[in-house]
Amino acid sequence: MGYSQGAQVVGDSLCGSSGLYGSGGYSFPSGFNYPSSPYSFSGFKRSSMPSELAKESPAVKRAVEERQLPSDETKNIVAIIQMGDPTFVPGKSYDVGTSVTRGLFPRSNTACFDQFASRIQSYCDAGDEFCASGASLAVHLSYVTKYGSQATQFVVSKARA
C-alpha cells in the first residue's frame, strides 16, 4: 500500500519511473543538496544524478526510467493499493474514485500496470491537489477514512483467492 508519494514509490518500484528526467514533469529544485554519500536516496551514483542523466543518450534514459521488476519477483504480489498517487492517470480499469484529471506527474506509459490491473486499486478523487491536479489538500487526506474499508476488503479478497 502506498499513500501520496508512497503510492508513487510503489508504482515506480513495480514498473519503473515514467518521465523522471523528461516530459513527465519531474525536476529537482535548483540548489538541491545531494547527500554527502556517493549514492543518493535513489541509488544513483553522484555522477549519475538527474542533470547528468538528462544529457545521456535516449537508450540510457530508457534503461533508468523504464526499469521494472521482473515477473518472477512480482508473481506473489496479491494486491496493490495506491491512494492519492501524484502519477495518477484517469480512465484505467483499476482507478477508484471520482477524478477524471491527471495527477501532477502523470505516467506517460501505463502499459506495465495493465499486467497488474486485476490486483490494483488506485484511489483518486476530484479536487485532490496531487493525484487530480486540483486545489484541495482535504480531499487528498481523506482516502483512508473514505475508502479504508473498501481497500481492506479488496486486499483480503485477493489474499484469500
Automatic annotation (TrEMBL):
A GO term, aspect molecular function: carboxylic ester hydrolase activity
Domain of life: Eukaryota
SMART domains: Cutinase
Signal peptide: none
SUPFAM superfamilies assigned: alpha/beta-Hydrolases
Keyword flag Disulfide bond: yes
Keywords: Disulfide bond, Hydrolase
Transmembrane segments: none
Pfam name, any one: Cutinase
Listed InterPro entries: AB_hydrolase_fold, Cutinase/axe
Protein name: Acetyl xylanesterase, carbohydrate esterase family 5 protein
Organism: Rhodotorula toruloides (strain NP11)
